[in-house]
Amino acid sequence: MPKQKESKSSKKSPKVETSPPSMDADIVEEDLTNPVEGGREKFNDSLVSELKTEQERRRVKSSVLVLTVMVSMVIGLASGLVGAVYLPDFLGISIGGDSFALEQKTIILNEESAVIEVVEKANPAVVSIIINKDLPIMEEFFSSPFDDGDFFFSPFNFEVPSDKFQQKQVGAGTGFIVSGDGMIVTSRHVVDDEDAEYTVILNDGTRYSAEVLAKDPLNDLAIVKIEAKDLKTLSFADSDSVKLGQQVIAIGNTLGELSNTVTTGVVSGISRTISTVGGLGSVQQLDQVIQTDAAINPGNSGGPLLNLAGLVIGVNTAIDQSGQLIGFAIPSNEATKVVSDVKEHGRVLRPFLGIRYILINNDFASANELKSDYGALLVAGDTEDEPAVTLGSPAEKAGLLEGDIILEINGKKINEDSSLLKSLRMYKPGDEVVLRVLSGDEERDVLLTLGERE
């Protein structure tokens, strides 16, 4: 505060007490008070009011400033956190090598844990199928190139079958349990030998004699049955939802010796068409199969191809001998139908036309100067046992001939994306269908009743 002026009645005026320093201590007014008689001071009311107003304004301004700073700090901190989480992904960059490596390690560990969990759950439901046959015992005989027949100079020996037999293992495959009472899905070529006997070995080593209940006449699928109760089972996924690159797990009796061998890979192709050779030399064309790079070795046929949820998406059926890590599996939706048919009818129901055909595409049509670049061309095979139209079949009764082209079935075009075989799977024996047929230059509609394939 400034010094007060000295009055005439007194050399010194009383001291005015000052307030403690504050945020408003710099507000000073020179003529804040006026001297009065008797040494008493009288404050100027208007100046005091202005001072208080100014102090209040400064206080409010200071509070607003502090609040603004605090809000800015909170917003800045939140923005930093959001940016750290989302900005690297948005810009396609990685920030912090150590954290990225940790994230990769976490993903790998999660995948490994998923595979381990699926295998532990599925293994009890995967079985080995042993193929046994009664074979004649071979007797060994020795012969001599010399006329004297001296035994010690008889280096040549040969074997001939005797009239005695013994049971020997001649093959092996895999299967998986789909019902608690012992229904098992496997490949048809594993159990195709009518003269063989089949033994099922569970994961715990328990052995059961197995009966072949049904074979799919269209696909490489079969159902066998063992007499058991309360068995662990596997469930089917919808194979129509399978995606390229999806991770898969194959389990099987590799080489017929290494039971429940596990391999992993991805779905590397879908809707493939392949030709396979069965154990008895039969050739079969399979449509809509799943391709995988998970190793499928001899003995794995009939085993499950699983997704990371532990559900069956396919039944392992074949490998490409000319390639590496190229295996194929029949989609689970086909196996689901087979199981349902056997439970309901005791056999697998497949529709039958009675034709042999080649699926037409642009290249085939151009090379053979056909009048249609789509459809199924009826052709005979190389032998008399392979006619284009089977005698007594629904196709023959409807008047179909070799060289005809089936263009449509019930209005749906027959092409590479929708083959005749795939289209027929939508129907049952006894269903009536309308075929659009190109005979020479004339198109006609043919009504026929589908038979049952045996």
Automatic annotation (TrEMBL):
Q: Give the superkingdom in one word.
A: Bacteria
Signal peptide feature range: none
Q: Where is this region: Disordered?
A: 1-41
Which Pfam families does the record cross-reference, listed alphabetically? Answer: PDZ_2, Trypsin_2
Please provide the record's keywords in A-Z order. Answer: Hydrolase, Membrane, Protease, Transmembrane, Transmembrane helix
Spans through the membrane: 64-87
Q: Keyword Transport, does the record have it?
A: no
Q: Which residues form the PDZ domain?
A: 389-441
Q: Name one GO molecular function term.
A: serine-type endopeptidase activity
Q: What is this protein called?
A: PDZ domain-containing protein
Q: Which organism is it from?
A: Candidatus Doudnabacteria bacterium CG10_big_fil_rev_8_21_14_0_10_41_10
